Amino acid sequence: MEDAILEIVAAIKAGTKTLDAEWLEKLVRRHNRKTHDAQRTVAKKRLLPFYLQIREQQPERWQSWEVDEKTETQLLRLLKMKPRRTASGVATITVITKPWPCSSDCLYCPNDIRMPKSYLHDEPACQRAEHNFFDPYLQVKSRLHVLQQMGHITDKVELIVLGGTWNDYPETYQRWYVRELFRALNDGTPYCGGPELGNDAAAEPAALDGSRNQDDAPTRAAFYQACGLTCDRDLLAQDASSMQAQVNQGEQNYNQAVQTLLQRGAWTRAAAMQTATWDEVEAQHHLNEQGAHRVVGLVIETRPDLITPERARIMRRLGCTKIQMGIQSLDDEVLRVNRRHVTGAQVAQAFAVLRAFGFKLHVHFMTNLLGMTPDSDRDDYLRLVRDARYLPDEVKLYPCALVESSHLMDAYAHDLWNPYTEDELVSLLVDDVLATPAYTRISRMIRDISATDIVAGNKKTNLRQMVEMRLASRRAEVREIRMREIATDDVTLDDLHLDCVSYRTATTQEHFLQWITNDNRIAGFCRLSLPDEQAEAATFGDAPLPTAPGTAMIREVHVYGRVASLGATSQGAAQHAGLGKALVEEACGRARLAGYQRIAVISAVGTRGYYRSLGFSDHGLYQLRIL
Ligand code: SF4
Question: Number of H helices and number of E strands within the chain?
């Protein structure tokens, strides 16, 4: 590993022109050809952690490599592992809420009591969360630190909050959680990470002072340790093992076990600090508008039956721009046997409410549920993408996987449920992709569950590539967004033209405006929603509407291309070529022509300044422009 690093450093210092991913691949292959010792093989993904570890823990050895600041900047960029992570235009930070009872108990849902419902402690984001006491401030700080170390630009951040059902958490916790997410991005203090984080301060009684909210990462970690919580995975596993066994054997359920854990002194002491006022949330929002890491999207996940106009209003006030909604199926009988406690009609109502509020609609849809066949799954997906009551903007489309702690184990043991074969699954997903319209993005095809946790079901992490290969062999035309994205490519502006896909939903006329190339690759898009007043009134009943009648809504503006620093120019990259502004102007023009007097935009906190520059002014939950 060291030889490889030294060769890269030498190449940088020598001014080698071709230092790119391909060059690095060749270097790794060349090193591995020379060694017959498996311990000494070089893996591209291990180079960066190795370099950082030596720099942190063996300063003398690191100094002997003579890596100056300029060389290091180039080195970190080259070793950056997953360029796609910022390819969609923003750096994504996923955080997990603390373990908490869920008001449903779905058959296939994992019951890992160390985690919020439906997550497993082996999933990467969950490991990070556990390591950081599920604290939003610590999770964001540590992730930001890692992304920066990997050379990613982090001035535009999308925050994704996962874990159980957001609306099951108390509103005070929700406010605190969001305030802390923003504070981590705003306060400019370093992470000072590592498992030993804050150990020295743990014994300080002052650390237990719950009023000390405005602290830095070591103080926060010390606070949790002083409460009696640990982030040591072995201790956590040991602590949970007997209760987890009871849950797995059906002697108690997840909610009961988690309630017991939460009522222990350590969690109740920590919870006393987990509260915030609206003023505090909004103060952090305000700071973020001009911050170094601006929030361009805030996503939370919840269940459709918990969506009400009042809850939607709270989520909007928190700064949410996108809602991930677990739907899984639209077949009422299948929902019933899978213990979802949700109906297709409730899902339709949730779509109508969230669409009226302008949220981006990201749904989870699961194939291979108990009671489904590949053919009934095909029909179910067609309903999702063709029935005007649904029509999501984004879909996580993944197969049901059997994990040991779920109730589905019983059905499997009695041969009532079995996973589809690989061919059945790939064929189904291929058909689903082909049925997906141009305005919908399939964001994922698998859950981040490790193969060792899957008792039965798909374990292939490259499932999406298998589907894409099948699609390529059929030379089929794909319209969904993700496969058309320009991703990390620079865009040639002369090749782009503006296209509009219009469609009706149960409550709106939607216009999906997209910048595309002649071969239909997408460089940016805007979602314009023109509400139907009667349908909206029927949806809301006595509850107040999110905007006044006669107001159109911009639900999303997204421009792809490698992320460029705020305010910087980047030749060829789509982000700064005025594509977003042109989309907004086109949306305003179309809304005016359709007879709307005003247009609102569901801006993220960090994009408010941008919309002000386009003539929008702040107006309650939205920014507004008179047409
Ligand atoms: S609603 Fe979601 S988190 Fe709750 S049990 Fe069902 S799948 Fe799990």
Answer: 23, 16
Beta bridge partners of 552: 599
pLDDT at 618: 97
Tell me what pLDDT residue 193 has.
55
Ligand 1 neighbour 117 (Cβ under 6 A): yes
Using the mean position of ligand 1's atoms as its centre, give its distance from the Cα of residue 389 in Å.
23
| Protein residue whose Cα sits closest to atom 6 of ligand 1 | 106
Residues of the chain where predicted confidence (pLDDT) is lower than 70: 22, 35-40, 81-89, 192-214, 487-491, 561-577
What is the pLDDT at residue 576? 53
- Token pair of 106, please? 């779905």
User: Does 344 contact ligand 1 (Cβ within 6 A)?
Assistant: no
Atom of ligand 1 nearest to the CA of 164: 3
Q: Give the Cα-Cα-Cα angle 353, 358, 364 (nearest 5 degrees).
A: 70
Amino acid at 531: P
* Integer-rounded Cα radius of gyration of the chain: 25
- Closest by CA to 127, choosing from 137, 138, 117, 115, is 115
Looking at residue 107, its pLDDT comes to: 94
- Characterize the bridge pairing of strands 441-444 and 322-328: unpaired
Domain 486-626: which CATH class?
alpha beta
Amino acid 44: pLDDT:
77
Q: Is the CB of 508 under 6 A from ligand 1?
A: no
Q: How would you classify the pairing of strands 441-444 and 394-399?
A: parallel
Q: Can you give 559-593 as a three-state secondary structure string?
A: ECCCCCCCCCCCCCCHHHCCHHHHHHHHHHHHHHH
- 158 C-alpha vs ligand 1 centroid, how far in Å? 24
Task: Tell me if 303 CB under 6 Å of ligand 1.
Answer: yes
Q: Which of 454, 376, 448 is nearest to 419 (CA)?
A: 454
CB 101 within 8 A of CB 259: yes
| H helix intervals, 160-232 | 171-186, 217-227
DSSP characters for 221-265? HHHHHHHT----HHHHHHHHHHHHHHHHTTSS-HHHHHHHHHTSH
Residue 124 Cα distances to 22, 446, 449, angstroms: 27, 14, 9
Which residues does 249 contact at the CB level (< 8 Å), separation at least 6? none
Spacing, Cα 486 to ligand 1 middle (Å): 34
Q: What is the pLDDT of residues 443-495, one digit of tens each?
A: 999 887 888 899 999 999 899 999 999 999 988 899 999 999 986 566 677 88
225 lines ligand 1 (CB under 6 A): no
Burial environment of residue 337 by CB neighbours within 10 A (0 to 12, 13 to 18, 19 or more): middle
Per-residue pLDDT tens digits for 256-269: 999 999 998 899 99
Closest CA to 558 of 596, 604, 519, 616: 604
Q: What share of the chain is helix, strand, coil (3-state, %, to 5)?
A: 45, 15, 40
pLDDT recorded at residue 332: 97
Q: What is the pTM of this model?
A: 0.84
Q: What is the distance in A from the centroid of ligand 1 to the CA of 101?
A: 10
Domain ranges, ordered by start, for the chain: 2-80, 486-626
C-alpha 610 – ligand 1 centre gap (Å)? 37
Ligand 1 neighbour 216 (Cβ under 6 A): no
Centroid of ligand 1 to alpha carbon of 215 (angstroms): 33
102 Cβ inside 6 Å of ligand 1: yes
State the pLDDT at residue 569. Answer: 40
Q: How far is the CA of 316 from the centre of ligand 1 (A)?
A: 22
What is the distance between the alpha carbons of residues 525 and 583, in angstroms, rounded to a whole number? 7
